[in-house]
Specification:
Length: about 170
């Protein structure tokens, strides 16, 4: 089986979306979720396939995928770490937190650690400015970060991520 292709389940879900939303553009966001849930990222090939199933122009899916930073465009580690570097977070040390993470994990921005566990990226404001500095890891926010808290979190993720079955998505 081509692992880059949509699964039967994903195709069925996309077909349901197509039937459910007469105004097809309403299906864009849920369609991106279907692709993301299967692959952990939304790449061009997957979007082209999904666009055909939901009968939407590929470019509309691709534009929306670029707009929403929670959808990585290429494969990422099991823990996708998005650090906000906008004003409030920057004022409270986001940049040095990013450097700390990269140094600790020994990767560059956007790379996957050799153990497949982590990818770090920087993102625009995630709407949690009152709890700066903060980062989103997969679906969860981690706020009021310090280096100590980052150490604890990485430790937790490592424990969880190397368990059989890996982390929850
Ligand atoms: S500036 Fe970081 S969450 Fe808003």
């Amino acid at each position: 089986m081509n692992t880059m292709s949509l699964s039967k389940e994903s195709i069925e879900k996309l077909q349901e979306l197509k039937d459910k939303f007469p105004d097809r553009r309403t299906a864009i966001l849920p369609a991106l979720h279907v692709v993301y849930d299967q692959f952990g990222y939304v790449g061009d090939e997957q979007l082209k396939e999904a666009a055909e199933v939901v009968e939407l122009p590929y470019v509309e899916l691709a534009e929306n995928a670029s707009f929403y930073t929670m959808f990585p465009k290429k494969p990422v580690g099991k823990y996708f770490i998005q650090v906000c570097t906008n004003l409030s977070c920057a004022l409270l040390g986001a940049d040095s937190l990013v450097d700390y993470l990269l140094e600790k994990l020994n990767v560059k921005l956007g790379e996957i650690t050799p153990d497949g566990l982590f990818t770090v990226v920087t993102v625009e404001c995630l709407g949690s400015c009152g709890s700066a500095p903060m980062m989103q890891v997969n679906d969860e926010y981690h706020e009021n970060l310090t280096r100590e808290r980052v150490d604890e979190l990485l430790e937790e993720f490592r424990r969880e991520g190397t368990k059989k079955g890996g982390p929850p998505s």
